[in-house]
Structure formats: C-alpha cells, structure tokens
Amino acid sequence: MSDKESIQTNHSRRNFLKGATGAVVAGVSASAFSGAVQATEQTVDWRSSLGKKNDKRFWNKVQKQFVLDKRTTYMNIGTTGSMPKHVLEGYEHNNKLVAKYPWDMKGEFGGFPYVSDMIADIAPGFGANADELVLSRNTTDGLCSIINGLHFEPGDVILTTHHEHVAATSPMNVAKHRFGVDVIEVQLPVFTGTENVTEEDYVQAFRDAIEAHPNVRLMVFSHITYKTGTTLPAKAICSLAKEHRIPTLVDGAHTVGMFALDLHDMDCDFYAGSGHKWQCGPGATGILYVRDNGRRLDEYWSDRQNPLWLINSSLSHADHLGKQMQMQYVGNDNYPAKQALADSCKMWDEIGRDRIQERILELSHQCKTLLIEALPHVKLYSPNVEGLTSGLTTFSPFDDGTDEQRLISFRDRLREEYGYIIRTTSFKLYKEDVYETHALRISTHLFHDEKDVEGLVQAIADLYYSF
Ligand SMILES: Cc1ncc(COP(=O)(O)O)c(C=O)c1O
User: Fold this and answer.
1) Of 12-16, 50-54, 401-405, where does mean pLDDT reach its minimum?
2) Residue 16 Cα, ligand 1 centroid: separation in angstroms?
3) How many angstroms does the Cα of residue 5 sit away from the middle of ligand 1?
4) Which letter does DSSP use for residue 135 in this model?
5) Cα-to-centroid distance, 27 and ligand 1 (Å)
6) Of these four, 319, 351, 367, 467, which has the most CB atoms within 10 Å of its CB?
7) CA distance 148 to 170
C-alpha cells in the first residue's frame, strides 16, 4: 500500500493543525480514519493565541481555514455552512478510501471507524454523555425520528410556537392526522424594533399555554427561531416543562456550532441540530441528543407502553442496546461525512465554544447596530438583547413588510452588484395574521470579520438609496 493510500491521523488530536506528520495507523479505531491531516496544512496553535491582544490575528487565522469563494461574501450560514480546509481534505481522503475499499471492516488500511468512537470524541463539547448523542443526517431527521416515533393517542396536545420550521411542523402535522393530536401554537412575542422584550415574556407565553391545555404531552420549540433569529430561553422553558412532567424536544438547527451548548444543564429531553450549518460539517450531518438514553420519557409517559417507537433504525428489536445505539444504526452509514462532522466539532472544541459564541455575537451586535445607524426606516426583527440575540439578523430596510418581490430583488442585487449573499425570510407577526411579513436575513460567522460586516452594511445602504 502506498503512503498516499494509507490512513493518516493527527498524532495530537488537541492541536489538529499542528501535527502534520500523518502517522500510519493500524487497527480499527475512529482515529484511523480521522481528519487525514495533509502535510500541506498550516500550523496553528489555538491555545497559544488566546490572549485578547492577539484576537484580531487569531480570528484572522481562523478565517484562513475556510475555502469560500473570495469574490463573494457568503452570509447565509443559517441555510448551510462551509467546511474548514482540513475537514474538507480529510473528507475527500476518506471518501477515496471508501471508494477503493468499499467493505473493509478491518482490512488493509485499518478499517472504517466506529461511529461510537466519533461520538465519544465530541459529546463532551455539547455537555452530553456518549450514550446520549446520535450522529443524525440533519435537524429534520432528528425531529422526525422523535415526533414520528412517539406513541401519541387522540386528544394529546403538542405545544409548539407559531415560528417553527417545516422540519418540525411537518412531523407534527403527521401526528395530528395519524393520532388525532392537537397541535397548539404559542404566540411568541415578536420584536419589531422598539419595544422591550425579556426572556420572561417567552417563558410566560408557554406558562399560559400549559395552564390552558392540561393534556400537553410534548413541547417542541426552536432554540433560535430561523425567522427572526430570536434566541428563546431554552433552559427556563425546559424547567417549566419539567415542573409539569412534559418532555421537551428542542430544534437546535442554529445553535450547534454557534453557541456553547450544555445540554445537561439545559435539561431538555431531546435536542435536534444541524451539523452542516454553523458547525460547518458536510451536508446531511446533524446531532440528536436523547437525554439519559430516553429514561425520563419512560417515566413521564409511564401510562403508555413503549413511549418511543424506533421508526428509523436497523436495531429496533435490540432493546438491550439502549435507544441511542438503536437510533444510531440505520443500515450502512456515510462514515466519511460523520468523521468530517466530528473533525469540525474537534476544531470548535479546541478554539473553545464559549469563545466562538462570543465572537459570533460580537459580529452580530456590530451588524445590528450599523444597520440601525445606516437605514432611516429599518425594521429590525432580531432583538439585540443579551440572552435573546443570536448570529442571525432579520431586518427590512423598508418600513413596509408586505412587498416580498421588492426584497427578493434587493437580495439579488446585493449579490450581483456587491457580492454579499444573504437570504429573504417571511413570518407572521401574530399567528392569526392572514399575510406574512417579509424581511432579509444575515448570518455572521467565524469566516467573517468587522470589515465584512461594515462592507455589507455599506452595500445595503448604497443599494437602499438607489432603489
Ligand atoms: C429552525 C430550523 N429547523 C430545522 C431546519 C432544517 O435543518 P436541516 O437542513 O439540518 O434539516 C432549519 C433549516 O434551515 C431551521 O432553520
């Protein structure tokens, strides 16, 4: 076997960009198949650059780890992210191995890794135990596995919000028609630029709904709503749910890779997130957290036999394995994609997830502040309030939110004439509204800096005045 074909691994998983020697590994292990660090990689020691003084230089190094097209500035991570260079290289390397040795459990190159090893590597970064995390396909996959698997009965209530993504509303709609479940939407307070909103406003909205509906069997809500980029106080909402012995399923599409999550501390029952968005893993990767391997669900739903059916598993009959393992195994897997997600998670862990969160929120704060300064009629729908803010900024340069076409052409011209890629979004301010409000949405992430944000707002202002 030539060197090129051999499996390479980081000899130090902590300093993954430092070690470029690529030791050949034999034997089956996750690291055998890992990041496949190439000898061309730059040397970056994240730990020695932690000082505040070096911040600019430090983030500049991070920015250089991405291969995004330099002719444009991509600011739609909320839809999907972009793999860091070394993750992409490892992914390509591992894909070639799979093509070359399609079924090789412990063959010439050391065999494919165990997904459980990858999980053990990254679970602590999310405040989870290894037996609580499933590497899923994406947020949709996680949400559907739980909602479609729950053993509902007619008259059960699912409490949700009026700003959920179709990834959640679609399986809830199935539960409604299949079992006669009532899906009740909580009216979320929606920030429209001026009024005060507090975390307690959101908790109160759920409290009122629980009191009005005694038969709530599940609560489903986004940690960050994709429409307005509002962060909901997930820990407080889960704590409220616990008081009422209601399991919680949190849609974390936008928090994985954006926030420093501690899922044990949040104490939700299920958490479904994307690996391909802010976490910058490959497409069709995600995580699904199943608290304590599903034991609390059994306790809360003790009146139901088999509360969670494993509708998406090759091992639904193997109860001794536990829910997490059973849910993980769905036929043959895409090991290179899962390894690439794990590699990206390790990079985030090494930088420090607190630090990443702080950086993203810094850029987002700058973006929101500059938009308000630059646009006389701006409507900001994302609260710039600690605890409720996120890396998403939803706004309209115009005070009239009814003209979708105008915003579509604004978005398109921003890309064509200035090179900034953002997206449009729409939502109901009030759940009874007949018409949707239309807006634009910006994502700020690790591959941006202050100049990108200034440039974007300048471009938006120029375009606004010529529109
Ligand atoms: C809030 C929310 N949930 C779920 C999804 C679906 O994510 P995925 O593509 O990972 O299934 C999205 C996608 O944008 C989203 O914004």
Assistant:
1) 12-16
2) 29
3) 36
4) E
5) 37
6) 367
7) 10
